[in-house]
Design goal:
Spore Coat Polysaccharide Biosynthesis Protein SpsA, Chain A, 7-stranded mixed beta sheet
Length: 316
Amino acid sequence: MAQTPATPKTRRWALSLWAHLIGPDRLARTANLQASERAALALRTKGAPAAPQDPMLTFMIPLVGKHHVNDWFGVSQRLAATLTSFTRQDNANWRALICGQDAPDLPAPLAEDPRITFLPFTTPMQGNDKWAKLRTLCDALPAHVTHDGYVMPFDADDLLAPGQISAILDSQSPGGALVSLGYVADQQNDRIALAGPPTLTKPRRKPFWKLCGSCAAIRYRPEDGPDFLAELTSHEHRMFPYLAALAGRPLKPLQDPAALYVLNHGDNFGARRGRVSSKTRFAQRYAITDPQKITDIRTAFAFEKISPPEASAQSR
């Protein structure tokens, strides 16, 4: 299952305008649409939902298979760091669904945490299977998420900032939350940059959601079903705000840097698709140079350099 191509930007703008002018039903009947856009318009016809009561945040994590990586120990370490960024939060109302061919090697506190569930991926596939795993995770939502809340696709090597589960759940957003501010950490070159909306002094800077897939908590109600989420996550993350708005559930930007995206650690999904170089240049262009700020970020995210494969192999 390949990633679904993005709708061109000009067409996104036009469809958003027409959905407002003529309504979702008529637009769905008259326009040539992608499956994701049809799912968004179908959701729009249900109207904006009321604020959720006692919501839960569910993370959907596609995990690479052993056969695709050079260092499985490193993969498991990075996933453990990701999950630890959840357990360190001040709000325990979350759960994580992980989908992959191979169960990760997690330390005891995480391996025994009832909020963390592993779902085996058994579909034979050639090439990158990330989107097939996200589809499997979406299809599993009805069995694992039984009340109102939010669902957040999250990569197995990214980190969530402290306090962000509370920020998402307390927002009571009818559509969900968007990570506009966040950090990009180039592990190989030991750089950390701040991603965010462009400014007068940084006109070419990009918001975090254009760089990383761990960028959006989408409103999910069991009565809505998983179809919209399944179609949304078949696209690149830059389509998320557009599709959420088309569904009548726009995403509200979080106020603080909410996540840290780790690249150039050796087994990134993007590296296998040849899509890391532009992000490496981004991290270089917008690198934070204040040593104390770097220390503060590393401390907040508990982000440390991970042992190289040689050391990893010796520890197994």
